[in-house]
Write a structure and sequence with these properties.
The structure holds two protein chains of two kinds. Chain A is α/β, with parallel strands linked by helices. Chain A has two domains: 87 residues, Double Stranded RNA Binding Domain (2-Layer Sandwich); 80 residues, Arc Repressor Mutant, subunit A (Orthogonal Bundle), CATH 1.10.10.10. Helices cover 40% and strands 14% of the residues of chain A. Chain A has eight helices and six strands; from the N terminus they run H-H-E-E-E-H-E-H-H-E-H-H-E-H. A four-stranded mixed sheet of chain A has the order 3-2-1-4, sandwiched between helices. A two-stranded parallel ribbon of chain A has the order 5-6. In chain A, helix 5 crosses helix 7. Chain A starts with 8 loop residues before the first helix and ends with a helix. The relative contact order of chain A is 0.12. The mean pLDDT of chain A is 92. By secondary structure, chain B is mainly α. Chain B folds into two domains: 86 residues, RNA polymerase sigma factor, region 2, helix turn helix motif (Rna Polymerase Sigma Factor, Chain: A); 73 residues, Winged helix-like DNA-binding domain superfamily/Winged helix DNA-binding domain (Arc Repressor Mutant, subunit A, Orthogonal Bundle), CATH 1.10.10.10. Chain B starts with 6 loop residues before the first helix and ends with a helix. The chains are: A alpha/beta, B mainly alpha.
Amino acid sequence: MNTSYGPDITDLIDALPAVTETELRDLHGRLADSADAQQVLDVAYRTLDTPVGTLLLAATVNGLVRVAFETEGHDKVLQSLADRVSPRILNTPKRLDVAAREIDEYFGGARQHFDLPLDFRLTTGFRRQILAHLSDIGYGQTASYGSVAAAAGSPKAVRAVGTACANNPLPVVVPCHRVVRSDGSLGGYLGGLAAKQLLLTMEAA
Amino acid sequence: MTPKRPFELIVAGHGATVLRVCRAVLGPVDADDAWSETFLSALKAYPELPGDANVEAWLVRIAHRKAIDVTRAAARRPVPVADVPDRPSIPRSDSLDFDLSKALAALSPKQREVVVYHYVAGLTYKDIAAVLGGSADAARRSAADGIAILRQVHPDNALRKGRAQ
């Protein structure tokens, strides 16, 4: 109830000049730059449109820490980065310029190897060992789950190889898509089988 | 334990409100710096913030300290010639050319802060008392005094007074 003379309080407050999207975007950019310069930005991320859908790329100061398919749910992935790495997360394309360029080049057929610092902190132990061996499978090649297990020194750990691939925090860059079943069928893929097929077909061309 | 949301969501969710608060308290010239300082400090301290904390009240507390810093720095600077930048304002049909950020200058700093923190940021008087010191009741009284002054300087009020005479 407005008992005094004059306009409603809400009208008074609404008379503040509106904040525009552009102003906020500029301020956000400034914040990201200062945060990066003062080394208080633990995780930077951006998205990148690719033939296998929009990828989320995230990096710590040590290197690329996560590549995520849309099917994983980017919001969920960011929350998991907040829980497992640090909640100091900002959308900051700058730190990911090189990674984005290399992934672009890869999908454009102009790059067969990634030359990026990688941060493997989201995987540990044997899984990490397995992922380290995946980069030995060259562009356009495939290997069976069994042969990857053998290369990692545990020929019987075929299921563990499957689990490591299914939980690869850096798909596309760490080429788990090159691991297929020994009968030649695709096996699984965290980005969906269509994405795996697309990557293998592209590399075979 | 409540999971801590990615800081990006804190900026997305509260950035506009904090900017409105900074502008209302400081005016448009210094508001951008205060906003940047506020969110940079907040980002640094964010991992230590309890998961169940009221994020908006926490941000306003930081913004309040930054506004004091900015005001002190401004006091040491030569006075600029024009204090209102060339910023397009949204035309409003119902309140003529009323500019709240200018009208707020008619309030005492305490009244201005309480009005902005309560009506713009949505903080309770209890939260405001925690930021400014003093009691929740004192904050409520300052807000009432501040709103009364804003009503007096509002053109609608001048109109009514004109009609009453």
